[in-house]
C-alpha cells in the first residue's frame, strides 16, 4: 500500500492542470459543471433502450457538413486532446495524455507515433468514404439509369478504398503487433482486434456490394448520401476513436508497471488480463448495455427469480434490478438509467448532493434513494437489504478510497451481478492501480474495459 500511495503522489496531476484539461471540451453531456445544464441535456436524449447510444452517430439529424467535420476533427488523433464522441459535439472522451513527456517507459515514443499514424490512416479513409457517399446522389441524379449509376459509383469507391487501406495499414499493423501490447497485455491482442474492425467493415461493405442488386440512400437533415458508403465512413470514424482511446489506457497501464516494478519485480506476470470491449459510446451508454444484460439474465430465471449457487445454497435474487452508485455528483447515471429501466431500484451515495439533484430525481422518488453520506455510511444503512445486481464505483479516485469501496461493496453484489466503475484512464493512475491490485489479490483473472473509462467484472 505504501508503494501505491507513492505512485499516486508522483502521478496525480495538479489541480490547475486538471482544470485546464477539462476546459478543452465543448458540449453539455460531461455533467461536471452546471448540474442544471447537465439535466437539460439528459432530458433531450431519446428514452428508448439504446437509442441514446445510437444517436451519437445518427445521420438523419445532421447535415453532410457536420458529419464531415466530425470525421475530420483534428482532436481525434491528437493524443493530448479529448475528441468528440458524437456528431453533435455534445459528448467528449474523458481520456487524454497529460503531456508529451508523460510516458517514460522504453519504446513509448515509437508506440505513440505509430498509433497516431494508424489513427490518421483510418481518419483519412473515413473522410474519403464519406465524400464518395455524398457525391453519389449528385453524380447519378440526372442519369437515365440512376440505380446502375449508384452501383457503379459504390463499386468504384469501395475498390479504391480497399487499395488505399492496404497501402496505409500494412506496415503500421505489423509495428503495432510487436510493440503496443507486449508489456501489460501479453498475448491479449484486443487493440489489434479493434484495427480488425476496419477490415471487417470494408469486407462487409464489399459483401453488400456483391449481394445487393440495388442501392439505397440515407436522408440527412439536408441532402442525401449513399447508404453503404455512409455506414462504412461512420464505422471507420468510430474505429479511429476506439483505437486511440484504448491505446491511451494501455499506455497508462504500462507506465504504471514501470513506476511499480522497483517494488513489485514480478508485477507484469501478476496483473489480470484486460479485456478491451469494442462498445462505442459514453459511460452511461455502456452501463445501459450492462444493465440490459442483467435484466435479460433475470428474465431467463423465470418468475421465481432463484439461482442455485451450489448444491446446498439457492439464492433468491428477486425480479427487480438493484443498483448502488458511489459518487452521484450531478446524478446523470441514475437519471439516465431510471428513465430506461422501469424495474430499477437505485441507491446513490455522495456527501455533497445538491438540492437541484434531489429535485431532478423526484419523478423517480419511489425507486430511487439518495444518501448525503459516504459510501461506507450507505453500506451500513443498507446492511439488512438484499444483495445488489450492480454496483458502480465513481467516488474520489484516490487509491485508498477505491480500494475501500471495492472491499465493502463487492461482497454486497449477488453471484452473476456486476462490479463496475468509471475513469479507468491514463489520467487516474491511483485508480488504475487500486482496481488492478484488488483483482490481483482476490483471484480475479480479468478486468473488462470499455470506452469512456468504464471497467467491470462479474461476480462468480
Automatic annotation (TrEMBL):
**Transmembrane feature ranges:** none
Q: Which residues form a coiled coil?
A: none
Which organism was this protein described from? Answer: Durusdinium trenchii
Q: Which UniProt keywords apply?
A: Signal
Segment forming the signal sequence:
1-16
User: What InterPro entries would the database entry show?
Assistant: SAM-dependent_MTases_sf
Please report the name of this protein according to its UniProt entry.
Class I SAM-dependent methyltransferase
Question: At the top level of its lineage, which domain of life is listed?
Answer: Eukaryota
Amino acid at each position: 500500500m505504501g508503494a501505491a500511495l507513492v505512485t499516486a503522489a508522483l502521478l496525480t496531476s495538479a489541480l490547475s492542470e486538471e482544470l485546464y484539461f477539462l476546459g478543452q471540451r465543448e458540449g453539455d453531456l460531461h455533467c461536471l459543471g452546471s448540474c442544471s445544464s447537465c439535466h437539460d441535456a439528459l432530458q433531450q436524449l431519446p428514452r428508448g433502450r439504446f437509442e441514446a447510444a445510437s444517436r451519437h452517430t445518427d445521420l438523419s439529424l445532421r447535415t453532410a457538413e457536420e458529419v464531415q467535420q466530425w470525421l475530420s476533427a483534428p482532436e481525434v488523433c491528437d493524443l493530448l486532446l479529448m475528441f468528440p464522441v458524437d456528431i453533435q459535439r455534445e459528448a467528449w472522451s474523458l481520456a487524454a495524455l497529460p503531456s508529451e513527456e508523460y510516458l517514460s517507459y522504453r519504446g513509448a515514443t515509437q508506440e505513440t507515433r505509430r498509433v497516431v499514424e494508424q489513427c490518421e490512416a483510418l481518419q483519412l479513409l473515413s473522410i474519403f468514404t464519406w465524400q464518395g457517399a455524398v457525391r453519389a446522389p449528385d453524380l447519378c441524379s440526372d442519369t437515365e439509369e440512376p440505380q446502375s449509376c449508384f452501383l457503379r459509383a459504390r463499386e468504384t469507391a469501395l475498390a479504391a478504398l480497399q487499395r488505399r487501406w492496404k497501402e496505409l495499414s500494412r506496415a503500421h499493423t505489423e509495428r503495432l503487433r510487436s510493440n503496443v501490447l507486449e508489456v501489460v497485455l501479453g498475448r491479449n491482442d484486443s487493440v489489434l482486434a479493434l484495427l480488425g474492425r476496419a477490415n471487417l467493415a470494408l469486407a462487409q461493405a464489399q459483401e453488400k456490394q456483391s449481394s445487393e442488386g440495388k442501392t439505397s440512400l440515407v436522408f440527412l437533415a439536408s441532402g442525401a448520401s449513399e447508404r453503404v458508403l455512409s455506414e462504412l465512413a461512420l464505422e471507420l470514424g468510430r474505429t479511429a476513436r476506439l483505437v486511440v482511446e484504448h491505446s491511451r489506457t494501455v499506455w497508462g497501464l504500462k507506465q504504471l508497471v514501470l513506476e511499480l516494478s522497483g517494488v513489485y519485480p514480478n508485477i507484469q506476470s501478476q496483473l489480470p488480463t484486460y479485456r478491451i470491449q469494442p462498445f462505442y459510446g459514453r459511460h452511461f451508454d455502456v452501463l445501459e448495455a450492462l444493465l440490459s444484460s442483467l435484466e435479460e439474465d433475470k428474465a431467463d430465471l423465470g418468475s421465481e427469480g432463484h439461482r442455485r449457487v451450489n448444491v446446498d445454497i439457492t439464492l433468491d435474487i428477486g425480479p427487480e434490478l438493484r443498483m448502488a452508485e458511489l459518487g452521484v455528483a450531478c446524478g446523470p447515471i441514475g437519471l439516465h438509467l431510471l428513465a430506461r429501466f422501469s424495474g430499477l431500484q437505485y441507491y446513490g451515495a455522495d456527501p455533497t448532493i445538491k438540492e437541484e439533484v434531489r429535485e431532478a430525481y423526484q419523478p423517480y422518488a419511489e425507486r430511487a434513494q439518495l444518501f448525503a453520506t459516504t459510501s461506507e455510511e450507505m453500506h451500513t444503512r443498507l446492511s439488512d437489504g438484499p444483495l445488489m445486481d450492480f454496483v458502480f464505483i465513481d467516488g474520489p479516485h484516490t487509491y485508498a478510497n477505491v480500494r475501500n469501496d471495492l472491499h465493502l461493496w463487492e461482497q454486497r453484489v449477488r453471484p452473476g451481478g456486476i462490479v463496475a466503475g468509471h475513469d479507468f484512464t491514463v489520467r487516474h493512475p491511483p485508480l488504475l492501480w487500486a482496481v488492478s491490485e484488488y483483482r490481483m489479490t482476490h483471484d480475479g483473472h480479468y478486468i473488462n474495459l470499455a470506452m469512456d473509462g468504464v471497467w467491470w467484472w462479474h461476480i462468480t
